[in-house]
């Protein structure tokens, strides 16, 4: 098994359980996934739910019960994307993995737009479950790392000591509440002030000449006199250290007045013992540069007791995945007695890995020789995890730009377009060299009002997609309708907006066609309801009168035909009003229905030849109606001696006759309502045929039969 698989890779959390909610409407598959995930790692616990609505309720009523959601896409009542969108309303950071058999670029694009953590397509074999377990573990570890980082920030905010961060030019970027209070300022007042503001003019030179240079070699700590906002003096213990990006970290605490606390320790030893970061001192005068001092924070960081580390070289923290390059950089700096900073993977006493930022600096004696090395050690696992998360998000965005089937654009808070993908260029008819970048959103979308757009963007929830419709101007002056998924992103403190635009021209055309068809169906329903029912009612009445005047075996047959006609009218009205929802689709033998139709249509001396052997999926009543109308049409126009043949085609069936045929110029109009060349015809027969064909999703065409008559071909598959 790969070393990165869950069974061999330690968790960030140690033994903490990962609680996964798995949502899949197939209970057998859900049970299988649960079994494999829990076998993949002892720390994984899975709860399955087959109803996505119940799963959503669980997440909302038990907000801390789950560390990750794994969901199918295609489920009754609620898709996995819809579930994701609802989860994001309450739990914007909860890991959510779409584990679906419906793999497509469209689904992946929609999932990314909705804020999915990961996307995995179901496949065959055991490996897919190991991969799912690995993905879930990675997602949860990043989630926990972010949570711990948030808690760390909260700890800084509530610390009793003052903590501030200054930029490389010395201006305050951040200060916690305690620091601002000690200096007598509101927090907002201190932001942007230079550190010189808090010193007496006579002390400024000392800071430049002594404190800051020492801080650059590692860390400076001592007692400093500050000037509060009201002009009074504050004497405080003061710590300074630089980060790799040149920022200056400052700590302030009231000086300790209990002399007993310092008994047996020098001020420097006490400061190091109580420092919030791990500190060790090593002695280069002895072989292998052993540790001669380690503070309490180093014990907490590594899990080793001081007695276990004194006399050993720091390399005992290294392990199988420690970077050789980082170790070589440290060794080179120590050999040259120069300060350096590296980040490398070290291992705690219990074997768990952590990312360690190590800063090493030499301490020189009066002769200029290194008498000790001081090492400052910070746990930066959380910041590494955050960087990995940002890197993954960047990879998602790059993949979205390169592979998305939709148009993708990025614009800023002023509506200025910063970037677009190739599909955007192609769809709007621009060459790649043409500059869309720099145009505004309203240059391209005529539906956007600049006065209302910017306030709308400002009020968007970050990382929460909003969907709406708009239009885009093509280069040739035409416009296309689009569906927009808009996401607000914070990129290095700057608001950017990711717009995923989907061309819905085909959808709009289908909607327009559907509206037109529904209008036609409504008109057709009126004809069926009124124009057919009236003569049928007359026929029924006349038959009742005939029954009173004479006795004949034919009367019952006529009454049965009337009942059949009434049933046909009802079915036809159902098609006109309800479309395919009124049909019962099932396997139907064409030959059997054809033979039955021949007995219900007045055919005189006409002949029927049934060559059909196929069984097709159809509504039997509608198919019977279609065949009756085609047979009736053949007899009406071909005469009593016509021969009607019903047979198979490779993709459906045909009905043909050997009558006079339909002129080629009239074939495009025969299906129109009212078309008829017979004095007794209603003009509805072939119109009804077309309605039945459309309701089934079939196709019909007219050609000439071999004998010169008419051939109707119906494509059913």
Oligomer: single chain
The separation of the N and C termini measures 48 Å
Describe the biggest sheet? 5 strands, parallel
How many independent structural domains? 5
Strand order of the largest sheet: 2-1-3-4-5
The total count of strands amounts to: 27
What percent of residues are in strands?
Answer: 15-25%
Task: Give average pLDDT, whole number.
Answer: 80
What's the gyration radius in Å?
Answer: 41 Å
Percent range of helical residues: 40-55%
Mind telling me which CATH architecture of the largest domain this is?
2-Layer Sandwich
> Which runs of at least 5 residues are low in confidence (pLDDT < 50)?
1-14, 256-267
> What best-fitting shape do the alpha-carbon axes yield?
elongated
The CATH superfamily name of the largest domain is Histidine kinase-like ATPase, C-terminal domain
Structural class: alpha+beta
Helices, by number, come to 21
User: What is the top-level CATH class of the largest domain?
Assistant: Alpha Beta
CATH topology of the largest domain: Heat Shock Protein 90
Account of the 3D structure:
With 717 residues, the chain is α+β, with helices and mostly antiparallel strands. It folds into five domains: 139 residues, Response regulator (Rossmann fold); 97 residues, Beta-Lactamase (2-Layer Sandwich), CATH 3.30.450.20; 119 residues, 2-Layer Sandwich (Beta-Lactamase); 98 residues, Beta-Lactamase (2-Layer Sandwich); 207 residues, Heat Shock Protein 90 (2-Layer Sandwich). It starts with 17 loop residues before the first strand and ends with a strand.
């Amino acid at each position: 098994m790969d070393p990165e698989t869950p069974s061999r890779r330690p968790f960030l959390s140690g033994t903490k359980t990962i609680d996964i909610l798995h949502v899949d409407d197939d209970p057998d598959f859900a049970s299988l996934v649960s079994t494999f995930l829990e076998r993949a790692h002892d720390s994984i616990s899975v709860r399955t739910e087959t109803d996505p609505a119940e799963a959503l309720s669980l997440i909302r009523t038990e907000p801390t019960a789950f560390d990750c959601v794994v969901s199918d896409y295609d489920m009754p009542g609620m898709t996995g994307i819809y579930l994701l969108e609802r989860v994001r309303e309450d739990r914007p950071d909860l890991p959510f993995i779409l584990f679906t058999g419906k793999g497509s670029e469209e689904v992946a694009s929609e999932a990314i737009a909705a804020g999915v953590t990961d996307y995995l397509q179901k496949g065959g074999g055991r490996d897919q479950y190991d991969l799912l377990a690995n993905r879930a573990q990675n997602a949860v570890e990043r989630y926990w790392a972010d949570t711990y980082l948030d808690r760390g920030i909260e700890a800084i905010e509530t610390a009793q000591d003052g903590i501030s961060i200054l930029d490389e030019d010395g201006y305050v970027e951040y200060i916690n509440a305690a620091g601002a209070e000690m200096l007598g300022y509101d927090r907002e007042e201190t932001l942007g002030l230079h550190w010189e503001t808090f010193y007496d003019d006579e002390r400024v030179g000392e800071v430049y000449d002594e404190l800051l240079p020492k801080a650059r070699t590692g860390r400076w700590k001592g007692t400093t006199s500050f000037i509060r906002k009201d002009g009074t003096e504050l004497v405080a213990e003061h710590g300074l250290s630089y980060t790799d990006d040149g920022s200056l970290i400052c700590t302030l605490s009231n000086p300790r007045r209990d002399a007993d606390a310092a008994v047996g320790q020098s001020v420097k030893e006490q400061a190091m013992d109580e420092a919030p970061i791990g500190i060790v001192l090593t002695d280069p005068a002895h072989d292998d540069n052993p540790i001669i001092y380690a503070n309490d924070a180093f014990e907490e960081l590594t899990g080793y007791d001081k007695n276990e580390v004194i006399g050993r070289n720091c390399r005992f923290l290294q392990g199988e995945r420690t970077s050789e390059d980082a170790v070589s950089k440290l060794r080179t700096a120590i050999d040259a007695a120069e300060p350096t900073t590296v980040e490398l993977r070290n291992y705690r006493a219990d074997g768990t890995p952590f990312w360690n930022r190590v800063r090493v600096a030499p301490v020189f004696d009066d002769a200029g020789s290194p008498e000790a090395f001081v090492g400052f050690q910070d746990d930066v696992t959380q910041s590494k995890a955050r960087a990995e998360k940002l890197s993954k998000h960047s990879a998602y965005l790059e993949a979205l730009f390169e592979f998305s089937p939709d148009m993708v654009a990025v614009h800023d808070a002023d509506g200025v377009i910063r970037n677009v993908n190739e599909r955007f260029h192609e769809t709007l008819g621009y060459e790649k060299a043409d500059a869309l970048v720099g145009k505004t959103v309203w240059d391209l979308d005529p539906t956007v009002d600049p006065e209302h757009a910017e306030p709308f963007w400002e009020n968007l929830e970050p990382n929460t997609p909003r969907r709406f419709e708009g239009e885009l101007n093509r280069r040739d002056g035409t416009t296309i309708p689009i569906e927009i998924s808009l996401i607000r992103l914070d990129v290095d403190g700057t608001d950017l907006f990711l717009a995923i635009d989907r061309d819905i021209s085909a959808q709009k055309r289908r909607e327009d066609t559907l509206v037109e068809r529904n209008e036609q169906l409504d008109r057709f329903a009126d004809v069926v309801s009124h124009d057919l029912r009236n003569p049928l009612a007359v026929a029924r009445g006349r038959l009742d009168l005939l029954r009173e005047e004479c006795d004949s075996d034919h009367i019952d047959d006529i009454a049965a035909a009337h009942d059949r006609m009434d049933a046909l009218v009802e079915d036809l009205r159902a098609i006109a009003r309800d479309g395919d929802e009124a049909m019962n689709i099932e396997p139907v033998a064409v030959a059997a229905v054809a033979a039955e139709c021949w007995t219900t249509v007045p055919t005189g001396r006409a002949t029927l030849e049934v060559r059909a052997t196929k069984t097709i999926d159809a509504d039997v009543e509608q198919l019977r109606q279609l065949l009756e109308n085609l047979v009736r049409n053949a007899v009406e126009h071909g005469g009593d001696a016509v021969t009607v043949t019903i047979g198979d085609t490779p993709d459906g069936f045909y009905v043909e006759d050997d009558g006079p045929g339909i002129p080629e110029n009239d074939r495009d109009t025969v299906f129109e309502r009212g078309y008829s060349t017979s004095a007794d015809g209603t003009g509805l027969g072939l119109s009804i045929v077309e309605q039945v064909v459309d309701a089934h999703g079939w196709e019909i065409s007219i050609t000439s039969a071999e004998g010169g008559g008419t051939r109707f071909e119906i494509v059913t598959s």
